[in-house]
Write a structure and sequence with these properties.
alpha/beta; disordered C terminus
């Protein structure tokens, strides 16, 4: 496990299997002419803002016996070890986050092999980031192993759920923008969890309701609630650098 603060930044294009409710707080504009052949059904432009980013890459050896762990798939025909692939994926994310001056990587963590930290450690790190952030937005980027059926993030002594992060958000960051990018199997369940929060709070799709309630959370995931993720697929096939904007795309072909 490593903790490597830096001041690197990026603007990225992200392919997500599902989208949570997006608000006009982020000044969303529809793009009518996609620039590739893929059958994207929705495009969303999010103008770049000053942010703090945390990256967590969790590919540990040991997990609790009461957690059903969904290990990310290895790319087809790959003969490279999981840990090497995990490191390549982590480096790819960092490279994407070094290509522009608006993304500030505040914390980077690699929970690989036997070098594992507890879920409490990571909750403390997330709490610290939310408390100390002076910028307009916090981005939490997770990649790694997850719990089957929930998409919860796996660590050596338990899991971090969307509710865990939501509780920290309400206590320490309410009224500010939080973006969660989750690249793990079954991650689409977090979109459902986020949507439930909005529904329970009576927050409609339009952004002024989000601002009134002080809940400005966006969730992007690499797969749907019932799908498994593959190491490096999200980064290699779904992300590229944009010159002017952070572009999130939603592929809604599969129902």
């Amino acid at each position: 496990m490593s903790d490597n603060p830096s001041s690197s930044t990026s603007k990225s294009k992200v392919d997500v299997g599902v989208l949570c409710k997006l608000t006009d707080e982020l000044d969303i504009m529809q793009c009518t002419e996609p620039d590739n052949d893929k059958p994207w059904h929705e495009w969303r432009y999010l103008p770049s803002v000053d942010d703090d980013t945390m990256i967590i890459s969790s590919y540990g050896e040991v997990y609790p016996s009461n957690v059903s762990v969904a290990r990310k798939l290895v790319p087809r025909d790959s003969t490279t070890s999981r840990l090497i692939l995990a490191r390549q994926e982590y480096d790819c994310i960092l490279d994407l986050c070094k290509q522009d001056g608006t993304r500030h990587i505040t914390y980077c963590y690699t929970d690989h092999g036997s070098l594992q930290a507890s879920k409490g450690y990571y909750l403390d790190r997330i709490k610290k980031l939310l408390i100390e952030c002076k910028r307009e937005l916090v981005i939490l980027f997770y990649t790694g192993e997850s719990e089957k059926g929930t998409g919860n993030w796996c660590f050596k002594d338990g899991v971090i759920s969307f509710q865990d992060i939501y509780d920290l958000y309400i206590e320490h960051f309410k009224g500010k923008r939080l973006c969660i990018v989750s690249d793990c199997s079954y991650s689409g369940n977090w979109v459902k969890e986020c949507a439930k929060v909005y529904d329970d709070q009576g927050i409609l799709y339009c952004g002024h309701h989000s601002r009134e309630k002080g809940i400005l959370i966006t969730v992007f995931t690499s797969c749907r609630a019932y799908q498994e993720a593959t190491i490096l697929a999200y980064e290699n096939e779904a992300m590229e650098v944009r010159v002017n904007d952070l572009l999130f795309m939603g592929n809604h072909q599969d129902k």
